[in-house]
Specification:
Elements (H helix, E strand, L loop, with lengths): L9 E2 L6 E6 L13 H20 L2 E7 L13 E11 L3 E11 L6 E14 L10 E2 L4 H27 L3 E4 L2 E4 L3
This protein binds coenzyme A.
């Protein structure tokens, strides 16, 4: 999709950097007092969106979240620390990296518990996709993440194409769309 006439600023990674700290309460946990995986994904989505908003400065929707490894449990009473920043901007989409640590409130120890890559798509108030500012990586780490993000995008696109090709045709039934039976 072309967006003629758009001249957008170029932004640094620091402009998108975001952080969120959550105290884990009983409502966030399972019957053993461990943080629910779905709740952690919710926090990851939120802190990821913060970075995407700060970069794009428009509305954003989550297009995908890559697979997450839950490396260590998080317990009720722990502090969850989430950090996010932009890895790369494409046309209307952006890859954001999120890293999560747990801090034991008594011992003060930090431990890495999860990492994830999310893709957000920028939209206007009518829901139309809009181009995003490009990202200018500066440090060696930022440049490495920038290059890796392009490789991950290629893998995602290949997977999306494979899924689309495997999907049965959709048929129109009295104004609504339902999956076709082939
Ligand atoms: C995400 C969404 C906007 C993509 O729209 P689409 O019409 O499928 O768009 P396209 O296939 O033309 O792709 C548009 C951009 O999104 C990216 N994209 C689309 N699907 C993607 C996916 N699953 N993962 C990563 N990127 C994706 C494309 O690479 C493209 O990026 P680019 O503009 O930077 O080149 C659309 O699927 C949507 O609105 N999904 C629902 C989002 C939502 O509600 N999220 C909250 C969770 S409930």
């Amino acid at each position: 999709m072309d967006f003629p006439g758009h001249s957008l600023p170029v932004r640094g990674v620091a402009e998108s950097q975001s952080e969120m700290t959550e105290l884990i309460l009983p409502n966030d946990t399972n019957t053993l007092g461990n943080l629910l995986g779905g709740r952690l994904m919710h926090f990851i989505d939120l802190v990821g969106a913060m970075a995407a908003y700060r970069h794009a400065r428009t509305h954003v929707v989550t297009a995908s979240m890559d697979h997450i490894d839950f490396i260590a449990p998080v317990h009720v009473g722990d502090l969850l620390i989430l950090k996010s920043s932009l890895n790369r901007a494409f046309n209307t989409s952006m890859e954001v990296g999120v890293k999560v640590w747990v801090e034991n409130t008594i011992a003060g120890m930090h431990r890495h518990v999860a990492s994830a890559y999310l893709t957000f798509v920028a939209i206007d108030s009518q829901g139309r996709r809009v181009p995003v500012p490009q990202l200018a990586p500066e440090s060696e780490d930022e440049k490495r993440r920038f290059a890796d993000a392009a490789r991950r995008r290629e893998l995602r696109q290949r997977e999306l194409e494979r899924k689309r090709a495997a999907k049965p045709a959709e048929v129109e039934v009295q104004g609504s769309v339902r999956p076709g039976r082939n």
